[in-house]
Design brief:
Strand order of the largest sheet: 1-2-5-4-3
Order of helices and strands: EEHHHHHHEEEHEHE
Strand content: 15-25%
Largest sheet: 5 strands, antiparallel
Helix content: 40-55%
Mean pLDDT: 78
Low-confidence stretches: 218-223, 228-235
Length: about 240
Amino acid sequence: MEESISGFKVRGDWGDVVEHGERITRALRDEGVHDPAHDYGAHFARAFEEWDEWRPKAHETLDADVSEKTADQASVEEGTGEQAGKDPDEDIKTAGEKLTTSYEQLEEDDPEAAVDNWKESIDYVARAADSAGRKALRRVEDTVYQNVMTQLAPYYFDNELISANVQQSARNGDNGDQFVFEVNVNDDGLKDAVSDRLAELDDEVDRWHVEVEKDTDAAEAIEGAEPPPEVDDQSKFTTN
């Protein structure tokens, strides 16, 4: 691993990439970043979850899985309508109902209530347009990113906790596919702590066990069989 002001970098095969992500995740977890009750707070805990979801896994590939996750992570955030679980059509319908109510209140000589409903109607129309626009942008972003941008730039991840990028440096050479994976911790104090913990892991760990996706379907299909138990993070390494 190379360490510099821009982060922690490894060069190697896919296993090296996966292991690098796991080690940094373990170091962050040891610092308590995953715990909303920790000093770092709930916002860092959410950022940690996002990173843990994005980081490359042993059962994934760069061109398919990491590409898709990168496009999702880079897409336009949800607007207020989407966050409320409302489709644009629903908001347009509500806007029409509010407008109808507004006209009825005018006829009932209640202009103040009529103005309130008219304003709400406009708000729903605006929210519907916002939701529709965001969805259209995401479709364009996803197509452009996965088919164009990944040909020009690395696959990347960025939030308030982690900035990372991974790219393929060689394909089908004598040593197989080779990659470069760089991860930076954006908080300087936490970055120093992660650096220290990574050094400790190098001293403590005899052999790092790369986490792989477990196939429980076969076991569950056998009558009376129980799926293998989930293994916690402590099983990913063996101490000297």
